[in-house]
Amino acid sequence: MPPSSAPETSAAPSGRPGLAQAERQFVRSVVAGLVLLGAVAVAGPLLSYRSDVAGARAEFQSRMTREARVYAEALGLHLKLLQTELLRVSEGVGPDVKRELPTEDLQDLTTPHAGLFHAGVMVLDAQGKLRWSDPPLDEAQAQDGFATRPWFQQVLARQTSVVDAIAPGASLFVVAVPVVRAGQTTAVLAGLLDTGTALPGGRPLSNDLELLVLNASGDLFLPSAPPSWANVSRASGELRDFIREGVRPPSLDAMPETFLTATPVPGTGLHLVLAADETALLSGLRDRFLVQLLVLALLQVGTLVLFTVHWRRVYGLFREVESRSARQEKMAALGSAASLIAHEVKNSLNGLKAATGLVSPEGEGGLVVRTLHGQIDRLAHLATSLLNFGKPPVVRRVDVNLSQLVRDVVEGLRSLPEAGEVRVDVDVPPDAAPLSCDPLLLTTALDNLVRNAMEATVAAKDLGKVTEPQVRVRARLDADAAVVTVEDNGGGPPPDVEGHLFEPFHTSKPKGIGLGLAMTRQALEHQGGQLTFERLPDGSRFLLHLPRVPRP
């Protein structure tokens, strides 16, 4: 921070003790607001995603339940057709089961391509003994009999058709119908079904669907190769619990997105279970949700970047305005004090000047008189600067001769104590066109520039940096502006001072107050001009630009 700002910096904590804390609170509030905005923005897609998933899942489960019913009805119709065909053939079975059989009709049921029971057909008597089969069963199966089989007992007791596993745990199912004569079941006609045959639902439906058909004991009728989660030892019991009570099988815990629905197969004791994988359904919703989050994240980052840029600009402008306001307050206070001091100093200087005017500058006390005159002029210049500081000058434009004005300024400074040590070169056009400006302000500006250059070169000589102090003043009139250049070989200002040359009360001179360049720039800017600085290898160059046509 420049030295000129030191008083402001030291005064800020006492004048505005809560400024830094207010800034921190503002930043925290903004960050909290952005976090809250981001949370609200993320909550919207998240709630929408959850709602979409719940709605899609409900619709998917409803559709799977309808499909399971359609499959069960299709399978029930097919099994009803088999039962009807067996009942038709059973009408040809006579009282003597061994001799009176419609052999030709029975063999038609097992025809390889046109038959309905490719696994075989058999006729049992009321005691469960095998009387006829196609293809023939082996002797072990024939001697064992079927009297104790649950499906055979059910046919005898109810005299109704039954679809069941031929034996507990077997994959071969039987469609059995009773042969009733005079109210008594004289025989049972049974068709055998293998799960590998082309039955409705016997083939895989799709990669995401599994269809299972099982009896009340948990024996699988379809498919021939059950899914892995139904192959565990407790799968039959889990499936029975699901059919009876709707309890999800624990074996599906590793597949949480698998949906199960169960429905009875009409006209049979079987149940159909449809398992569907929701992964394909939810993956699309999940991808869309991730895209929404990505777009939202990009928008949030973009908003944060734009807000940061805008906030930095607004905050910088706020700090600049605040600094300018504080500087103006300080300048106003200092200007009032400076004007009061300058009036008192000028009154004293007028008396001193009148007193020294009574003493001749020649003779034995001439050196003392000349020294007093130089110091009185220096103090008068300082008092004038203090008087003009802190109040905007009033511009009074008249036509002046730039060349003559420059020469008058240089001649007026030859009375300075440093003038005898400095060579001042003046290069101005001999006949210059009139320039519309305020001669007092322009004279003040040039006086400050040339005076500073002379003092800088003499100080450089005293330090041994130069042997011959030199100042060069050049003026020219361009088509649109008057340009005056003041150069010196005093080495230039220190690097840490260069950036604050035009700030009030900022100077590198031991006895300076830092108002000369600030007032020079102010005098030019009020006339529409400008003052710039360039560093030379051996010194400084100040360029004064003043437009020939006054700016509106």
Entry summary:
The protein is an alpha+beta fold.
If you had to describe this structure to a student in words, what would you say it looks like?
It catalyses: ATP + protein L-histidine = ADP + protein N-phospho-L-histidine. There is one protein chain. β6 (209-214) and β7 (220-222) form a beta hairpin. This protein has helices at 6-15, 19-90, 103-108, 139-144, 150-158, 235-245, 279-356, 366-388, 402-412, 439-462, 495-498, 516-525, and strands at 121-125, 130-134, 162-165, 172-181, 184-194, 209-214, 220-222, 258-264, 271-277, 398-401, 423-427, 434-437, 470-477, 481-488, 530-535, 540-547. The strands form 4 sheets. The chain has a 5-stranded antiparallel β-sheet, with helices on both faces. The protein has a 5-stranded mixed β-sheet with strand order 11-13-14-16-15, with helices on one face. A 4-stranded antiparallel β-sheet has the order 7-6-9-8, sandwiched between helices. The longest helix has 78 residues, at 279-356. The chain has 12 helices and 16 strands. The protein is α+β, with helices and mostly antiparallel strands and 552 residues long. α2 runs antiparallel to α7, α9 crosses α10 and α10 (439-462) packs antiparallel against α12 (516-525).
